[in-house]
Amino acid sequence: MNRSFAGRRALITGAGRGIGRGAAIALASAGAEVTLVSRTRSELEEVAETIRLNGGCASVAPADVSDPAELEAVFEGLGAQPADILVTAAGINRPGPLVEVPVENMAAIVEVNVLGTLWACRAFAKRVIPGGQPAAVVTLSSQMGTVGYPGRAPYCASKHAVNGLTKALALEWAPQRIRVNAVAPTFVKTALTEPMFRDEQFLQTVLSRIPAGRLGEVDDVVGAICFLLSDEASLITGHILAVDGGWTAQ
C-alpha cells in the first residue's frame, strides 16, 4: 500500500539523531512538512538539508524538551496551521548500578524521557484540539517499558512511565480524534549505541535475548512509527507496538 503524508504537518523531537532523524526523513519523503526539534542546531540543519536535497520540506526549531516553555514556543511558532503529527523521539540513558548512578543523571532521565514527552504531547494537543482535526502521536518507548534490565533502573522506570502516559492520553483524547500510540524497540544500532556493542560479551548477551537473532535497525522502528501515524492504523490507539525481535514475548 502506498503510504502518503502529503498535506500533513509533523513535529519530531529528538530529530537530530537516530530514530528521530530516521522518522523525520521518512515522513518528509512521504510528503509531510516536518519541523525538527532537538537541542543541537547543527544536527538539525544537517537533517533538514538532507530532506531538502530530496525534495522535502523541513524547518528547524532548536529546543530543550525538558523545558516546557521552550516547547510551547516551538509549537506557537508553527502559527495558524498546527502540526497534526507528533513523534516524541527525544530520550537519554545513563546506565549503571542504581546505587552508583548520580542523582543528577536519574533526574535528567526523568526530565527528558518522561516530562519531555509529556510537555510535547501537551503543547501539541493544546493547538490541535481547538481545530477539531484528526491527529496522531507516536511516543518512543522501549522494550524496557515492559521488562526490567540490570543497570538500567531509571531508564526502565522512565519507559514504563511513557507507556502509561501513552495509554492515558489515548483514552483522554480519543473523543477529540487524536490517536496516541508508542513504539517499543529493542537495542537499536545507532551512532550512540555503537560504542556499547564494541563490548563483545555485552553484544552476545543482548543477542541471546532476541529470538530474531539480530539488533534492531533504525528503519525497523521508523517503519512501525509511520504505520501507526498512517490512516492504515486509524482504529489503533493506546497500543504499545514492540519492535524487539521477540524479546518481550519470552
TrEMBL record:
<keyword id="KW-0560">Oxidoreductase</keyword>
<dbReference type="InterPro" id="IPR002347">
    <property type="entry name" value="SDR_fam"/>
</dbReference>
<feature type="domain" description="Ketoreductase">
    <location>
        <begin position="8"/>
        <end position="186"/>
    </location>
</feature>
<dbReference type="Pfam" id="PF13561">
    <property type="entry name" value="adh_short_C2"/>
</dbReference>
<dbReference type="InterPro" id="IPR057326">
    <property type="entry name" value="KR_dom"/>
</dbReference>
<dbReference type="InterPro" id="IPR036291">
    <property type="entry name" value="NAD(P)-bd_dom_sf"/>
</dbReference>
<protein>
    <submittedName>
        <fullName>SDR family oxidoreductase</fullName>
    </submittedName>
</protein>
<comment type="similarity">
    <text>Belongs to the short-chain dehydrogenases/reductases (SDR) family.</text>
</comment>
<dbReference type="InterPro" id="IPR020904">
    <property type="entry name" value="Sc_DH/Rdtase_CS"/>
</dbReference>
<dbReference type="GO" id="GO:0016616">
    <property type="term" value="F:oxidoreductase activity, acting on the CH-OH group of donors, NAD or NADP as acceptor"/>
</dbReference>
